[in-house]
Amino acid sequence: MKDEQQFTQQDIEILKEETLYSGFFRLQKIQFKHKLFAGGMSGVVTRELLVKGAASAVIAYDPQADKVILVEQVRIGAYDPGLTQSPWLLELIAGMVEAGERPEQVALRESEEEAGLKVDKLTHALSMWDSPGGVRERIHLFAGKVDSTKATGLHGLAEEHEDIRVHAVSRQTAYQWVCEGKIDNGIAVTGLLWLQLNYQMLQQKWR
C-alpha cells in the first residue's frame, strides 16, 4: 500500500443531488461518478445518503476509582421484535453538534444534560466517520475526567423526550461487557476500546 492515498475529494464528480426528505435528519439521493484505481471514470452511481452532520461523545472516566460513566436509554434503531436483546442500550454520553457549536462544547453540555456531570481536562481522543457507505456523520470522541460518585440518578431533557439512567461502572467491567456483546453500539465499543488502550496514560496525566 502506498504511503499516500491515490484520490482526493476532487476525484468525485457530483451529477445530481435531490432531497427526498428533510426533518431532524435529511435524506439525499445522489448521482455521481468517481475515478477508478485502474484508470478512467466509473459509470453513474446512485446512492441514498442520510445526512446527520456531526456528533460528540465523551469517555467520562474517573482515574481515581478506575470507573467509566455509561448512560442507558431506549433506541428505536435497536427495536426489532425478532430479537431477544433489549433496545435500551448502554452508551457513552453523546449529542449532536448544532450550528455554531464546537464539538468540545457539545461534549461538555451533553455531560451535564445526560449525566449531571462536570467534566474536567477534556481531551480529544479521535474523530471518525459513522457508516460512510450511506450516512454522512462525523463522530468526535473525547475523554474527560469526572468524579464517578456524582454519577447517579435519572437525567435528560423532557422537551427532547430523553429518559436516561446513569451508571458508574468499573473500566474492566465495561471492557468485559464489550467483549461479551452486552455493549454493542459502535460509538461505545470504539470509546471503551480506546479507553482500555489508553487508561494508564490518562491516569498518569490526571491523577
Helices and strands in order, then pairings?
Blueprint: E1 12-22, E2 26-34, E3 45-62, E4 67-74, E5 88-91, E6 93-96, H1 103-115, E7 120-129, E8 135-145, E9 154-155, E10 164-170, H2 171-180, H3 186-206
Parallel strand pairs: 3-8
Antiparallel strand pairs: 1-2, 2-3, 3-4, 3-6, 4-5, 4-10, 7-8, 9-10
Helix pairs in contact: 2-3
Explain what this protein looks like in three dimensions.
The protein is of the alpha+beta class and about 210 residues long. The protein is about 20% helix and about 40% strand. The protein contains 3 helices and 10 strands. It has helices at about 105-115, 170-180, 185-205; strands at about 10-20, 25-35, 45-60, 65-75, 90, 95, 120-130, 135-145, 155, 165-170. Strands 1, 2, 3, 4, 5, 6, 7, 8, 9 and 10 form a 10-stranded mixed β-sheet that branches. A hairpin with a 3-residue loop joins strand 1 (about 10-20) and strand 2. Helix 2 packs antiparallel against helix 3 (about 185-205). The protein is globular, with a radius of gyration of 20 Å. It starts with 11 loop residues before the first strand and ends with a helix. The model has no long low-confidence stretch (mean pLDDT about 95).
